[in-house]
């Protein structure tokens, strides 16, 4: 005579895996508690989690990290901006300078005398046209014009060599602001501290000297070895004073503007850093604009036009 099995020793049937129902398992996810076979579990910080929970956790971590960065925390550059792995602004500025140079070459039909082009005549920083003729765009456009092959080659090399590491150190937006404020500083120095009949000025070297000024502040701020900076600065100062036709005022103005801009970026208090940075840079820009307005108030008005003599364009201004 047979007896029914003792319930005490009867084994309960194990549930099937949530993803593989035909696989009985005694394991489960420590997060969602669904039954899972060993193939569907991954080791986590606490216990084992199923593949769905692992993926959901990673997505949640990415969202939280983004919110953390957007709130102003996490990995930041020296200027408090989001870090960039590669330089983007520097190659764009370099390409823009090279493109404009070859446009002037095409218009003039000469590599060495590309200043005899309409774009060059309209864009160079010429005091009578800028101050007396109120052609204020020249303050910006002159920084993207280069005179001759040697000029574009040297400025392109300097921008590439100095700009890329500085862009990754500061961040793309602070670097862009630094470049254009430095460019403005070089143009303003030429307008304000030179005579009305001074020779026209072009070139990106004012902005590049501003980048060197930024390195000066970084070396002081981080207490770095200044040897490399002194070599670069000394070489550029030597070229500025020894090579004829170099704008000393443009280099000095760009350097000072870049130095002050970087000081505002790096020494702003952590609390409300962005507001302090914008306020400091605004003071520098407004001060430069004030100098230009003061200089303009002392300059007579003139009407300017582009004339062509024997196929060569030239700009002329006549007092009103």
TrEMBL record:
Domain Peptidase S54 rhomboid: 134-267
Keywords assigned by UniProt, alphabetized: Hydrolase, Membrane, Transmembrane, Transmembrane helix
Localization per record: Membrane
Molecular function per GO: serine-type endopeptidase activity
Topology class, membrane: Multi-pass membrane protein
Annotated Pfam families: Rhomboid
Chief site of localization: membrane
InterPro entries associated with the record: Peptidase_S54_rhomboid_dom (IPR022764), Rhomboid-like_sf (IPR035952), Rhomboid_protease_S54 (IPR050925)
Transmembrane segments: 86-106, 144-163, 175-193, 199-220, 227-246, 276-294
Cellular component, GO, one term: membrane
UniProt record similarity statement: Belongs to the peptidase S54 family.
Designated name of the protein: Membrane protein
Organism for this UniProt entry: Amycolatopsis keratiniphila
Highest classification ranks of the organism: Bacteria, Bacillati, Actinomycetota, Actinomycetes, Pseudonocardiales
């Amino acid at each position: 005579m047979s007896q029914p099995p003792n319930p005490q020793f009867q084994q309960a049937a194990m549930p099937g895996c949530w993803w593989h129902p035909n696989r009985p398992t005694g394991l489960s996810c420590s997060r969602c508690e669904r039954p899972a076979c060993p193939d569907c579990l991954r080791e986590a910080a606490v216990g084992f989690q199923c593949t769905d929970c692992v993926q959901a956790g990673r997505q949640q971590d990415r969202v939280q990290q983004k919110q953390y960065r957007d709130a102003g925390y996490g990995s930041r550059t020296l200027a408090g901006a989001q870090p960039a792995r590669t330089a983007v602004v520097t190659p764009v500025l370099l390409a823009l300078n090279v493109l404009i140079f070859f446009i002037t070459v095409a218009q003039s039909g000469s590599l060495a005398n590309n200043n005899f082009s309409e774009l060059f005549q309209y864009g160079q920083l010429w005091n009578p046209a800028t101050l007396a003729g109120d052609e204020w765009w020249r303050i910006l456009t002159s920084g993207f014009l280069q005179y001759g092959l040697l000029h574009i080659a040297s400025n392109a090399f300097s921008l590439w060599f100095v700009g890329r590491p500085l862009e990754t150190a500061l961040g793309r937006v602070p670097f862009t602001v630094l470049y254009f404020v430095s460019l403005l500083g070089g143009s303003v120095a030429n307008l304000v501290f030179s005579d009305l009949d001074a020779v026209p000025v072009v070139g990106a070297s004012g902005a590049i000297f501003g980048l060197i000024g930024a390195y000066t502040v970084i070396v002081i701020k981080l207490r770095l070895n200044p040897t490399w900076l002194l070599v670069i600065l000394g070489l550029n100062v030597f070229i500025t004073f020894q090579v004829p036709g170099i704008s000393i005022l443009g280099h000095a103005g760009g350097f000072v503007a870049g130095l002050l801009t970087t000081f505002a970026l790096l020494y702003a208090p952590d609390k409300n850093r962005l507001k302090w940075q914008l306020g400091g840079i605004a003071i520098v820009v407004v001060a430069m604009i004030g100098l230009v307005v003061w200089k303009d108030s002392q300059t007579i008005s003139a009407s300017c036009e582009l004339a062509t003599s024997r196929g060569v364009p030239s700009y002329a201004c006549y007092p009103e």
